[in-house]
Design brief:
Blueprint: H1 29-45, H2 48-54, E1 61-63, E2 73-79, E3 84-97, E4 101-104, E5 123-124, E6 126-133, E7 138-145, H3 146-159, E8 181-183
The structure holds nickel (II) ion (NI).
């Protein structure tokens, strides 16, 4: 079933705060279908014609809980100048992270968050993630830095029921972060 902006759970729904569970491998037909729907959403969302046709809000990532399924699955599509990075991950987890922080200069957004929340969202500048890659059908180890690392951490946060604005400094949203990698 096609995911649209209407089927995405918004942050006024407490289910978004649910902890996601591990997914059984090998993947069931149902889980594989959901993963396919998730990556299709993210791929199509940045195509202006498809976005208009199917009511998609542009995104770089989505987690299963955002369609109401508390399972550890995420899809990411990042268009870079030279290449497109795609991750369709099952049971991913961070196995190491840098002490250095990184943040997006313009702050973060989320398909489940309608209101704008301004402020820096501090995250690790570099992470290593392990999990099952449903595009390659094998276990993978991903070393990510900068923007890719931030997007991965944003989606992994959804597994814990954490939203990006939870991480913004409440007293001083634009407080400088020492030695951070700042991403335009
Ligand atoms: Ni999100």
């Amino acid at each position: 079933m096609r995911i649209t902006l209407d089927t995405i759970v918004k942050d006024n729904d407490p289910i978004l705060r649910t902890k996601s569970e591990d997914v059984a491998l090998p993947l069931s037909m149902e889980d594989r279908q959901l993963l396919n729907d998730m990556i299709t959403y993210v791929r199509d969302s940045t195509d202006p014609e498809l976005a208009e046709k199917y009511n998609l809000r542009p995104a770089v990532g989505i987690a299963a809980i955002q369609v109401g399924v508390p399972k550890k699955m995420l899809a990411i599509v990042i268009h870079e100048e030279e290449e497109t990075i795609e991750h369709l991950l099952v049971n991913p987890r961070i196995v190491s992270n840098s002490a250095q922080y990184a943040y997006l200069k313009m702050g973060e957004g989320c398909l489940s968050v309608v209101d704008e929340y301004q402020g820096y969202v501090p995250r690790s500048a570099r992470i290593t993630v392990e999990g099952f890659d449903a595009l390659k059908n094998q276990n993978v180890r991903i070393r990510a830095r900068g923007y890719e690392a931030i997007v991965l951490q944003h989606e992994l946060d959804h597994f814990k029921g954490t939203l990006f604005y939870d991480r913004i400094n409440k007293e001083d949203p634009f407080k400088e972060i020492d030695d951070a990698m700042i991403i335009d």
